[in-house]
UniProtKB/TrEMBL annotation, chains A, B:
Coiled coil: none annotated. The gene is LOC113407310. Gene3D superfamilies: Bira Bifunctional Protein, Domain 2 (3.30.930.10), GAD-like domain (3.30.1360.30), Nucleic acid-binding proteins (2.40.50.140). It comes from Terrapene triunguis (Three-toed box turtle). Belongs to the class-II aminoacyl-tRNA synthetase family. Type 1 subfamily. This is Aminoacyl-transfer RNA synthetases class-II family profile domain-containing protein. CDD domains: AspRS_core, EcAspRS_like_N. Keywords: Aminoacyl-tRNA synthetase, ATP-binding, Ligase, Nucleotide-binding, Protein biosynthesis. The keyword Ligase applies. One of its GO terms (molecular function) is nucleic acid binding. It comes from the Eukaryota.
């Protein structure tokens, strides 16, 4: 419906689509995935049947029409419509499927509640914006595949999903469960041990986090792993990948992307994912305040490692410690933008590598113990390897994050490929039972090549490129905040008989068991 | 390692790979995903360190060497090796990871048990055959994506997995379960209602069948759905897709593929997936036998619809009823081939469309009731639509199967797009509760376009193209017969505490509960 132009005038055409709009049996606008076309309904007696069919068909019914492409009369052309120079004079019309009254109109400007959109997702998908987002996603992913598969000889290998961690899936063996993994991390490392030295996958991953806004229990990542590669090698590959797949209409992106250490990011922006589209950096003003006689400031500066920092806000001023300042910086940006100052250009795309993360963090609940900052397979920074055995808390890692306009869109690392080092990290530093990962430790002993990789969060990336307000706008069938599919009503109750082959039964919380009894 | 040729002679190179073979400190063969290269170890005193490093490194260790590409001396060239004209004289060598003694050697000719291969899948993947299979799979899938996405404007849209049927996944809401779907069937139909008129996805699907040989609990399909399309349109698309993605080394395939009705297939081959690479068809010899005075033959022929059929076997003869004859035909082929007669050319690829399936089948346990031959969304054959309301058992469907060399590699149908017809099939013919599919029935009322689709079983297809004995040879990390991952030991026991957030507990069978108690 969106492809006819002046060049087609005089041609006989058949169009199938949805009735977007119909006016008093005079004309209608037909819509399909390609766009809109204006249809002129014949008014003569010979075509009274055609007129009746189209007049009676409710809006959003599916029709097939045949007719002749004609030029619109002078003054009636619509330059804002790609097919605005032509219209189709109908000869025959057939209703392929009639439409009942819809719960909402298919018009982008009509506000619908999130719950209604999710319940009738198949109608929501008819909106111009959703169709645009999903088309953009399909095209960009295809370009990524071309870049990785054709230009870089990566092997697209599916890892298997029923395996690792998180969501549990009961099996037919009593007491045994599969799990839906958060990522194919272990499998991709084992592929490297298997000598499949360049792997990528557009991988479906699962994360059971309960209800977090703008997160999905299932999500998609571009997952990459390579052997015989270093951090710079992976960074250059990703820059090339994004440059190659970037949509033309968003303008070119410049590579290499700038890089910043974790320590710098925290000091200057109060976050490990700085939005570098605007300044308002954090400035260390301790020296200025050291000589000032304000009690609480003096107290702060005179403590060991005590500092006073400030951010410089156009037409304003604040001071405090770094994470709070980081949040304040973003709040300030919101405030200033609400007053009409444009700080964050929505057409600008600022990529940033954040590097040199700490390998371990002190546990919040017990600061004497360490936990992995990312995951236990991350390799230590080459300059800090010896510290691993003496002062592990000071070791930097070979982890890298990719940040776009203040959102983390990817992360990866060079992995540990030495079994002894991996066992030391698991057993001695993290106090975990290495037997749980015995197959991985075993694999590292079998000639595991040095390797590393990265995963890009596809949903978030496409969301930013499309300028969509939520990742739910770039996913065809997303789940609600609470992980519910409001259309098919999943998750749903099932009968004890259906659970029987899996050897499980529901452990009802006391209150509900009581309610069920009554 | 597989890329160096005579043209590179004189160049300095760095190679990383696995030691495939090492001989008395004189030379070794280095292997990576690209192939093999012969490495000459220097024997002079100045390089004694290099010699020691390479001499001490166990087979399958990972090494990095630098050296000069040289021509092999006359008489020592190996024409069977792509790099057989050259060798690399090493200057420096470094062991990147040493390898322990492996549970089996990485040589294709060494027989390993299936269980051992699965337990050490990362070693099994190093074999030439597995690397070849996975490379073939990656390349063929990429060609398919190019064909669908670039040449045919299909949108690659991910449907979401936590939704429909089969494997159950407990959620954090007491008593509510997600399911892992067997296929994205409903979602792709809803995409059509959503106006995304050309969809494809390389979809991961799940099937919980317990233990069936050569089936996997998770499998991959090329999933396609289109609006405003008929059976022929989908068949031509699939033929083009296979032709475009077919590997050069398997020779060209001819389109259109031949087509055969379900009735013909059953009558002539005794199966709905005939291997048409060889004859031995079933012949109806009832007329010959009608006048023959053999009691049991007379009994058979004189019953209503009674027939006597036979197959003609070179150097042999049998007779019987059709499904048995179909099996006998394959058994006969096995027997004749074991005696040296080649009936089924392993280099021939015979595609066949099987069409005009019955829409419903009589239930085995209760022949008075009907069940869907495929699924309840399949549309009736246009010539049989009126029969649907009078004699549903006689209605043919718009389902089509694609058969390759006697294996079903795909199937699809034109779907019902009329809500009334869909409700009639569910409620009146199949006696199912239409409320369970109320969201789909609701969607069909909202201007659902005529639509249809198909799914190709990717694992089976690649298996046939690769000539692999099992689909496990074209999947990186398959599960065993019993659905076990022998490497990571999934499915595995988990603690009651881990089950708590999901409000389930294990219902141990009596015997095991007793054993646990003691």
């Amino acid at each position: 419906c969106g492809e006819l132009r002046s060049a087609h005038v005089g041609q006989e055409v058949t169009l199938c689509g949805w009735i977007q709009y119909q006016r008093q049996g005079l004309f209608l606008v037909l819509r399909d995935f390609q766009g809109l076309t204006q249809i002129i309904i014949p008014q003569d007696e010979a075509h009274s049947h055609v007129k009746k069919v189209l007049y009676d068909a409710p809006v959003e019914s599916v029709v097939r029409v045949t007719g002749t492409v004609t030029s619109r009369p002078p003054g009636q052309k619509n330059p804002r419509m790609p097919t605005g120079d032509i219209e189709v004079k109908v000869k025959t019309a057939e209703v392929l499927n009639s439409c009942k009254k819809l719960p909402f109109e298919i018009k982008d400007f009509i506000k619908k509640s999130e719950a209604l959109r999710m319940q009738y997702r198949y109608l929501d998908l008819r909106s111009f914006q959703m169709q645009h987002n999903l088309r953009l996603r399909s095209q960009m992913v295809m370009k990524m595949r071309e870049y990785l598969c054709n230009l870089h000889g990566k092997r697209n290998i599916s890892s298997e999903y029923l395996g690792a961690k998180e969501f549990v899936v009961p099996s037919r063996e009593p007491g045994r469960f599969y799990c839906l993994p958060q990522s194919p991390q272990q499998f991709k490392q084992l592929l490297m041990v298997g000598g499949l030295d360049r792997y990528f996958q557009v991988a479906r991953c699962y994360r059971d986090e309960g209800s977090k806004p703008d997160r999905q229990p299932e999500f998609t990542q571009i997952d990459i792993e390579m052997s015989f590669v270093d951090q710079a090698g992976i960074q250059r590959l990703i820059e090339g990948l994004l440059q190659y797949s970037w949509p033309n209409e968003r303008g070119p992106i410049t590579t290499p992307f700038p890089s910043m250490s974790y320590a710098e990011a925290l000091a200057e922006y109060g976050t490990d994912k700085p939005d570098t589209r605007f300044g308002i950096k954090i400035i260390d003003v301790s020296d200025v305040f050291r000589s000032v006689e304000i009690g609480f400031v003096q107290n702060a500066v005179n403590k060991p490692q005590g500092t006073v920092k400030a951010i410089c806000i156009p037409q304003g001023a604040v001071s405090g410690v770094c994470l709070v300042l980081g949040n304040m910086r973003l709040e300030t940006a919101n405030l200033l933008e609400s007053r009409g100052l444009v700080l964050r250009d929505p057409t600008a795309f600022h990529f940033l590598w954040v590097v040199d993360f700490p390998l371990f963090l002190h546990k919040e609940e017990n600061p004497a113990e360490l936990e992995s900052a990312h995951h236990p397979f991350t390799a230590p920074h080459p300059s800090d390897t010896s510290l691993l055995y003496s002062e592990p808390a000071k070791v930097r890692s070979q982890h890298y994050d990719l940040v776009l306009n203040g959102s983390e869109i990817g992360g990866g690392s060079i992995r540990i490929h030495n079994a002894e080092q991996q066992r030391f990290v698991l057993e001695t530093v993290l106090k975990e039972d290495p037997e749980l990962l015995s197959h991985l430790l075993e694999a590292l002993k079998c000639g595991a090549p040095p390797h590393g990789g990265i995963a890009l969060g596809l949903d978030r990336l496409i969301c930013l490129v499309a300028g969509a307000p939520s990742i739910r706008d770039v996913i065809a069938f997303p789940k609600s905040f609470k992980g519910r599919d409001l259309m098919s009503n999943a998750p749903d109750y099932i009968t004890p008989e259906e659970l029987e082959p899996y050897h499980i039964q529901v452990a009802w919380p006391a209150a509900e068991a009581e309610a069920n009894k009554n």
